Amino acid sequence: MNIKQKILDTIKEKQLTPIPAWKFLTRTYGLWVLSSLLLILGSVGVATMVFIFTKNDWDIYNELHESKMIHIVSTLPYLWLAIFLLMLVLLYIDIRHTKRGYKYTSLPLFFAALGTSILLGFCLHVIGVGQKIDTLITQGVPGQAHIFNPRLKGLSHPEKGILTGRVAIIESMSSTTTRVYIENPLLEGTWIVIVKPTTILPPTGIHLQDRIRALGEEMEDNEIEEHQFFAQVILPFNTLSIDPRWKKHNKQSSIPPLIQMYED
Amino acid sequence: MTDYSDQTDESLALLSATDHDAFGALVGRYEQKLYRYVRRITDVNHEECEDILQETFLKSYRYLHNFDPSLSFSSWMYRIAHNETISHFRKRSVRPKIIREEDGNTYLQNVAADLDITADIDRETLQRQIQDVLDSLGPKYKDVLILRYLEEKSYQEISDILKIPVKTVGTRINRAKKQLRHIIAGHDMNIRS
């Protein structure tokens, strides 16, 4: 057997040279950069999911759904969950293809990737990344934002007494009636929230460009084109705590009317 | 002609990028070992085996800068030889079903030592039965067993060659050993606990 001479002759004849080191380094570092990107993307998904979950209308969930469990299942951000799982799987595959990735058994590696994504995701949520992403999507693609945040669709059912939107115009009709025009890309036509002295308002009032939630009932008026919604309660869009006046209202006790509205 | 006998494989690998003689010395060191290994995991004839070996060494030359110093050079060479052999198989869709006769005794001795068999063995019968077990286990178990009992590689080396976790190496060997114990128990032999 004289393979050695054959090989050396082949190297000489074909003028073979070793592949440059930088090509291997590019692949090595490229895999790690990709892994880092996937980790960050997955963590951004976690941060956004955590944000959406914390602002998930816990103050009025029983107005929206029959039970807390149904509320949770109906408003889970499934798309973000799918994105997160996809990133996680890709991250796992990517790490497996690194030089030393084979040394780790599957389950511990997968759970390490999962744990790191979740931990980083919570950190990103704390610094407001989740909220930022949610806002970007809501402003950037308002017509499709509900796909990322199912909550928006759940709050857009005026026929069921719940309405959400961004305040576009505030029009004082009389001393007792104010019309608040809102924009909601999920609903057709123009929507006007009617505010009366009995309407419970947010403590800081309503301003232009505020996002609000309104509980009340849809008013049918065939004489006008716009849709009207009489608001019994107007709440800020994102609130964690239940307004004590809303609690009282819910128990149908009498509350002195409180009107605080500001126009720019 | 430079004498490379006092150089380690790893230092020769470093020199090989610019010194063909150094690479020749490496080929000389691994030629026989890898030839034996390739023949153990294939049923190819001598010429085909040489072809696989040539591809292995040429690939190792082209990928010299990809050698990971945290591995032993031996493991790296075996890994390339293994992968080239698998590529060759994929073209032929055939893998061997027998342990070669010349390897039979070595294999049996090493397996017997590992299982602590004390009694005399009807070697021919036992070897056939062991071969049946191996065939039923599939190629991924055979690869591990050949590296362990014929090439006498450590678990870490097998892990580096086959690119599987050390734990998986252990699992596959243990599973094969369990089945082998079952056969050996059927021969009424003593197995030291």
From TrEMBL, chain A:
Keywords: Membrane, Transmembrane, Transmembrane helix. It comes from the Bacteria. The keyword Membrane applies. The chain crosses the membrane at residues 29-52, 72-95, 107-127. This is Uncharacterized protein.
